[in-house]
């Protein structure tokens, strides 16, 4: 299991923050496993470590 903090932003077509939207802080709890049996070279190129996400739960981060 891991927790990842990230920021969500709305961007305009030029990649700049869109006016009228504030960035929000999030924390996600992720459970994962490793697929130890990568069968083909193509699989290895796409996902070299065999990471498999089992669940993903994003929640707004509450900062007091």
UniProtKB/TrEMBL annotation:
Cellular localization per UniProt: Membrane
One cellular component term from this protein's GO annotations in UniProt: membrane
Membrane topology value: Single-pass membrane protein
Location of the Bacterial virulence protein VirB8 domain: 1-61
Keywords assigned: Membrane, Plasmid, Transmembrane, Transmembrane helix
Superkingdom: Bacteria
Stated name of the protein: Type IV secretion system protein virB8
Source organism of this protein record: Escherichia coli
